[in-house]
Amino acid sequence: MIKKILWVVGAGMILFALTVIYQIATTRQHSPPATAILSTTHFQVTVDYCRPFKKGRKIFGELLPYDTYWRTGANEPTVITFSDDVYFGTSEVPAGKYRLYTIPGESEWQVVLNAETEQWGYWEPDYNLDVAKVTVPVQQSDSCVQQFLIRLTDQPYGANLALIWDFTKVIVPIKKGV
Length: 178
Description:
Layout: H1 2-30, E1 33-39, E2 44-50, E3 78-82, E4 86-88, E5 91-93, E6 96-103, E7 108-114, E8 130-137, E9 139-155, E10 158-176
Antiparallel strand pairs: 1-2, 2-3, 3-6, 4-5, 4-10, 6-7, 7-8, 9-10
């Protein structure tokens, strides 16, 4: 009798582990990983993130409610790395690796860098570890972007970080630090 119980419990644990592995593997298919890299004469910026699809949904204000935390992508946290000290918007940020998250609003977003980078899934960060918080206006993109995109573009002062999805775009300027 005890052997049967142990066998059932063991089989249940294996089934549970396989289910979790399957979900993680298939989640990456729905929101594949991507990297945006820009090297300028001033610094290098790298952003590692996952790219969810629109799939006919209304994104901002429904799927992602306004004025609430968004991990800015899917799966793992979006991580941005700076090779040198920079100004992220108007905030001074030391060279290093940061979690990038946002709080989308209807007319403006907060784009935040946080020192906590190793969480997986939809976990809100420890807000006490926020390093920089920038408020930027929402812009309309020219066309509907079906898959979330982070774009880095070279600018005379440094770079622009653009977050684009659906018909929404926000841009954060990045400049060389002192």
